[in-house]
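FAQ: What does the model actually see?

It sees only this:
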Amino acid sequence: MRACQGCHIPMVFSDWRREYQAIQEGVGLIDLSHRGKFRLVGRDRRTWFQGMITQDVVRLPDGRGAYAALLNPQGHMLSDLRVFALPDFLLVDVPGATASMFAPHLDHHLIMERVEIQDVTEQYALLSLQGPRSASALATCLGTEVREMAMWEVRCLECRHVPVICARVTHCGEDGYDLFLPAEHAAAFWGHLSVRRPEFAVDAAGWEALNIRRVEAGIPWWGHDLDERIVPFEARLERTAISFSKGCYIGQEIVARIEARGQVNNLLVGLLLEDDRLPEPDTPILKADKKAGRITSAVHSPTLNRGIALGFVRRALSTPDTELTVGGEPSQTVRVAALPFIPHDYPSV
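And it is asked to produce this:
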C-alpha cells in the first residue's frame, strides 16, 4: 500500500483500475480522515463566520451544507472548505494542507463574539462513499432515509448506537456520501461497509483512482489546482463557492470588483494531451513559444483512453479546441477541452 505524499490517504490499496471501476460503477470507500475538521459553537457562530468566508452562512438552513472559500484581503484563496449547518453547531472541514492554519487564522479575527472554534480533527474520522451504488450500500447501516437525501443535505443519524453525521456530497463527479463519526469507531464502520462488496461492489479506493475520476469531472483540488496564487474566479468557482447577495467578508471588495469587471486574466481549463506523456505540475503551457499558462494536474483517463490535464491559461486562449503546446523535451501539443471531460453523475437536487 503506497501512501500519497502530503496526506494520509493510500495511493492504492491493491489495483487502481479496480478501485477506479468501483467509483464509476459501484462504491469506492475512501478514508478522508486527514482533512481538518472543526466545530464552531456559540450564539454568534453564523453572523461571525459570515464575515470570514465567501458563502452565505446566515441563510444556510440547518440540515444543509455548502462549498466556500477563505480569502485574504487581496482576494486570493487561503483555503477552500465545506460548511455544514447543524442545529447546535457549524461543522467545517478543510484540506489537510490548510488545517494547521485554519483555527489560528479565524481566532485572529475573533474579538468579542460569542464563538468557540473547536478542532475535532483527531476526534472525528471522515469516511467517504463515492459511486452510483453508494446510497444502496449506506442504507444497509444507516437506513433507507439516506436515499431521500438531496445533494448537500446533512443529517445526524445512528448506526449500532454510534452517532454519524452524514452528508450527501461528491468529491469526483459521482454520487456520494461523507460520514463524520467518532474516530474510535471508524475501523468497525469501515469493516461493516467493506463486507458489502458482493452486493454493491464496494472496494477500498485510494488517492490514484479518486484523483483520476475528479480530473475527468473537472473538479479542482487544493494543493493541486487551487492555492494561494489564485482568486476563485480563475478556478471558475464563482457559481459554487461564492454568494453575491451576502454582506461584507474578507476579500469581498476584490470579488465585487472582478464581478463588476466581468473577467480575470487566467482561467482553469481542460486539456487533451497529444500522447501518453503526463506533464508535471507547473510545466509551462505555451502559445507561439510564449508562456500562456501552466499545468496543474495530469492523468491518464481509462474511460477516454488518453491523457488529460487541468491547467490555467490566459483567458483569450481558454476557448475549446484552441491548440497550445506544453513545454518539455520534446514539447507536446495539447488542445483546450470543455469541462467536465466526463459528465457528472449524481442527483441534481
